[in-house]
Design a protein that fits this description.
- Helices cover 38% and strands 18% of the residues.
- The protein has 388 residues and is α/β, with parallel strands linked by helices.
- Strands 1-2-6-9-10-12-13-14 form an eight-stranded parallel β-barrel, surrounded by five helices. Strands 3-4 form a two-stranded antiparallel ribbon. A two-stranded antiparallel sheet has the order 7-8.
- Helix 5 packs parallel to helix 10.
- It is globular and about 60 Å long.
- The termini are close together.
């Protein structure tokens, strides 16, 4: 199985030994961040620093003139990735023979929400999610499509992986996050992700719903969960709480907005890219799921993109719905496996995890994350990849 590891530009820039160290893991590819959200990251081997604080969502290269005069535009990085940090890191990594693909985070941007709160998802209580741009809003959609094309097609890149290309909800590791005190389950998280911005309110109306009545129904449905009633019924739980017809109407609006955004973004990347450029989506096979791995219909997304990167932290079972779509023999089904022990990864079972992913239809693996892992974790990765 072809293997790629995720890397940040700051893992490489200023560390002459980083490219060879990453290549020596045995990976054939690196997935290098070109547009990324705010984060605080460890750099355990860098000669000049140990902690990088990316203060806001940013592009890690100089944005071009397409943004001139536009209200929504990407922010360049600060001193954590100055200038063309992506380009400098990509050149160094390619110099070792590694294939470089871009890693592009899209609908996850707390600075956008802070400076333009009207762009954010608004829940049924009127709370805004500044980290979650509403993907139904026309201006936001245009911004995300253009950002996808610009950030994905960087010089020398052979492909791109698009993350957060769909709805975002409450599930977000926000700064000093303290939202885990009540277990909401799948149904509760779906209800808390429903957006009531003006565009979404109009969208519900197109599907026969009164937005005020829907918001009231959502609040009423959530009351038992706030009091501690557990929910583990998935979509059946949503139907039970809202009613089947109302639940289906909300999903019809949200699924259509996500699906058409994904189609537009992939098409824009392909239009800007050279022939043979690969476009993958970080994806979850349950369409109503939200977050970094966008909920998708497997058959649809494999008719749009060249493949998917699938979260496999809890095992590779989510590969199965994608593997069941037999129409694309060349589709990439990449299992995303954590290899940072301190963040819940399992580098010491990587051989077995890769074998199981292959059995379930996986064609490649993504390893999260070469820059964050300890030396012991990287040693386990080298051994597992050498034994393939």
């Amino acid at each position: 199985m072809k293997a790629s590891t995720f890397v940040y530009p700051w893992d490489v820039v200023g560390d002459p030994g980083a490219p060879a160290r990453i290549a020596d893991l045995g990976v054939e590819q690196v997935t290098l961040a070109a547009a990324y959200h705010s984060t605080r990251a460890l750099t355990p081997r860098h000669p000049r620093h140990r902690i990088v604080t990316a203060e806001h969502a940013a592009v890690l290269y100089p944005p071009d003139g397409r943004w001139e005069g536009r209200a929504l535009r990407p922010w360049p990085a600060g001193d954590w990735a100055p200038g063309d940090a992506y380009g400098e890191a990509a050149e160094a990594l390619a110099g070792t023979g590694l294939e470089v693909h871009t890693w592009v985070v899209l609908a996850h941007n707390s600075r956008l929400g802070a400076e333009r709160p009207d762009t954010s998802v608004v829940n049924a209580y009127g709370d805004r999610y500044p980290w979650a741009p509403c993907i139904a809003q026309p201006a936001t959609r245009a911004y995300l499509v253009d950002l996808a094309a610009e950030a994905a097609v960087r010089p020398g890149a052979a492909g791109a992986e698009l993350e957060s290309l769909g709805w975002y909800g409450l599930q977000h590791l926000h700064a000093h996050d303290k939202t885990g005190g009540v277990s909401l389950g799948d149904a509760g998280h779906y209800l808390m992700a429903l957006c009531f911005c003006p565009d979404c309110r109009a969208g519900y109306g197109e599907h026969g719903l009164d937005a005020d009545a829907l918001a009231a129904a959502v609040r009423e449905a959530l009351e038992p969960l706030w009091r501690g009633a557990a929910d583990d019924q998935g979509w059946t739980g949503v139907e039970k709480l809202l009613g089947k017809e109302t639940a289906a109407a909300t999903r019809a609006w949200r699924d259509e907005r996500a699906r058409t955004l994904q189609e537009a973004a992939v098409a824009a990347v392909r239009a800007a890219a050279p022939a043979g450029f690969q476009v993958l989506l970080h994806a979850d096979p349950v369409t109503y799921h939200v977050g970094a791995n966008a909920g998708v219909d497997p058959a649809h997304i494999l008719s749009v993109a060249d493949g998917v990167v699938v979260p496999c932290a809890d095992g590779p079972g989510l590969l199965t719905p994608f593997a069941a779509q037999g129409g694309r023999a060349d589709a990439v089904l990449a299992a995303n496996l954590g290899v940072v022990s301190g963040m819940g990864g399992r580098p010491r079972t990587l051989s077995a995890d890769m074998a199981r992913a292959r059995e379930l239809g996986g064609t490649e693996v993504r390893l999260y994350h070469a820059g964050l892992a300890s030396d012991a974790d990287l040693k386990a990765v080298r051994e597992a990849l050498a034994a393939r």
